[in-house]
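Subject: for your reference before the review

Hello V.,

The reviewers asked for a structural picture of the protein, and I figured it would be easier to keep everything in one thread rather than splitting it across files. Below is the amino acid sequence we used in the manuscript, unchanged from the supplementary table.
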Amino acid sequence: MPIGTEPIDTEPLPSEPLGGGPAGRPVSGGSVSGGSVSGGSANSASAERESANDQPVSGQPAARQSFTARQSFTARLWASTEGIYQAILRHPFLTGLTDASLPRSAFGHFIVQDTYYLRDYARALAVCAARAPTEADVRALATDAAEAVAAEQAMHADLRQALAESGLDADLLAVADARAVAAGDPVGPTTRAYTSYLLATAYGGSFLEGLAAVLPCYWIYARVGAELLAASSPDPLYARWIAAYGDPAFQAVADRVIALTDRVGAAASPGERERASAHFLATARYEWMFWDAAWRHETWPV
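And here is what came back from the structure prediction:
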């Protein structure tokens, strides 16, 4: 679910934020059609974060200062979902992309449902933008919301072109969409549940809660993109889809939202951080479920 392409200077995402993990999103490569996995030293990145976190936070109670000194908020968020992330990497949908065993019908189901997802994800981002603490944050999140809609349109145009170039059925997406409509609701159960959760959290929770709910789409896709890009795919269509996540601009967007989450999280109360953590965990699970729904060609059971 790629969103946003405007690079913004920010602290780079560590290649191994929790130690021993897979490499982070590639930060070089130059074009949508390719890239290489690269990154700085994990120890160096960790030291920089510790140095920043050791600085007292002006105007914050001692308890909040000790929280930031121990570990960044987003490091704790990622630690809570490491098992989910590993399950995502092992899912047959993703392994099927890299070894070209993924059925075209499952890929078509994913693209159709991603269209519906991105429309509501953009709305959730717009709500977050309206509640952002600074003008720069408002502008950045509002841009992401607009880019989510633009990405949907560009993605479909690009994939249709790729299908035509490969001699495959250019109406694959229309067929998958027709199946969903025939099932009684074009928006699948998991898509509906995921987007409803995002919108409810963005509208009903605090800014940090809404931000934590939308963050897995940024962060997990950035990490997954690096993993898939390293392997690519012998299938030209799947290789093209994978390469889209090699764009350094996407990593820059993810880095910026992670940094914003740390900044807002450091100033939040323990209770607010706990609620935000629960939302991050829930939507990380929805990310796994979204790929699984496409793999199963999920439709409404009744």
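For the response letter, the relevant points are probably these. Residues 78-295 form a domain with the Heme Oxygenase; Chain A fold (CATH 1.20.910.10). Residues 4-69 have pLDDT under 50 and may be disordered.

Happy to draft the paragraph if you're swamped.

O.
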